[in-house]
Please model this.
Amino acid sequence: MIDIEKNNRGNGIFITFEGIDGCGKTTQARYLSDYLRGKNIKFIMTREPGGTRVAEKIREILLNRDNIEITGRTELLLYLASRAQHTDEVIIPALKSGVWVISDRYSDSSVAYQGAGRGLGVESVRNMTLFATDGLEPDLTFFIDISPETAYLRMKKQGKVFDRLESETENFMNEVRKGYYWIIENCRNRFFRIDGEKSPEKVWKDIKSILIEKIPELK
Ligand code: TYD
Model:
């Protein structure tokens, strides 16, 4: 069960969605927002990189396909800068006023993509993310797990124009996935793997059952 007394930053609950590109987490975030609305819970929906005026500018630099010269360390620092601003300007104030925050990606993305995918080291990236967020971590994270092959086929079928990160190879996505598996081992209390190969409705059912188990007021 989530102990919101302990986290010392208001009584809003912080939930994040994670997974490789094309895993379907945005659809699940939408299911969750419909559900919370039905329960009259005050929440905001946000995303990373981005979520504030300045952070959206950093997002543009990060995802622009023309910026091929960005190195791994620069990439990490830009994601962290975007997150620091997002945390201070949006997430902490919301949680402090009792509003729940749902974010499409947060620190775990940096651990998986930059720590594992770019090979910067999962442990050191995790420590750096804690600096960027001033120690803030989500209360609950849903990791929608699918294979890079399924992800690629889904995005292609949707006719998606790939951004700089999405243009990475299957091998890169496999490494990112391994990064998420490292988090499963290291953050057992808040990080839950959901089988994303199922239909969106079934994935939502799995998410909902964990949600209800962890947050009794949702029952
Ligand atoms: P976005 O278009 O939001 O992708 P999606 O809708 O699939 O989540 O782009 C975010 C991209 O940035 C995505 O490829 C993952 C990557 N990313 C990182 O590499 N590190 C990070 O810390 C974050 C937040 C995102």
